[in-house]
Write a structure and sequence with these properties.
Helicase, Ruva Protein, domain 3; two-stranded antiparallel ribbon; 60% helix; 3% strand
């Protein structure tokens, strides 16, 4: 499945701050913690909790969020289907990066072991 330019633009202009509370709710509803969520986000982006808080307060777009991120060298190991798209087949780099994050949050919420989520 290919993403459309309209979908890619919508993702790029969406703020991380608008999605973050949904990530927190999703993982906490399934018995995981906000700290575990931050660990997953830090693994992917190298953003510590302080930097993450700053980005949320600044209401940065996903485009800015991932421009500032230092993506983990093992991020390419994140595979599978999320939101109806096979991550490996997404061609737009930003959309792929956002789906990496979505997939990690989904795995955390589903109770997957942290070492598996972090591709260790």
């Amino acid at each position: 499945m290919k993403t459309t330019p309209k979908q890619d633009q919508r993702i790029a202009t969406m703020t991380f701050a608008s999605v973050y509370p949904h990530y927190v709710t999703k993982v906490e509803k399934k018995g995981r913690t906000k700290e575990e969520l931050h660990e997953v986000i830090e693994w992917l982006t190298c953003f510590g909790s302080k930097k993450l808080g700053e980005l949320i307060n600044q209401k940065v777009t996903f485009e800015t969020f991932f421009k500032e991120a230092n993506l983990n060298s093992n991020a390419h190991l994140i595979k599978g289907v999320i939101c109806g798209y096979r991550i490996e087949e997404i061609e737009t780099p930003l959309t792929k990066q956002v789906r990496y994050l979505d997939k990690l949050v989904d795995e955390l919420a589903k109770g997957r072991k942290m070492e598996k989520i972090l591709r260790q």
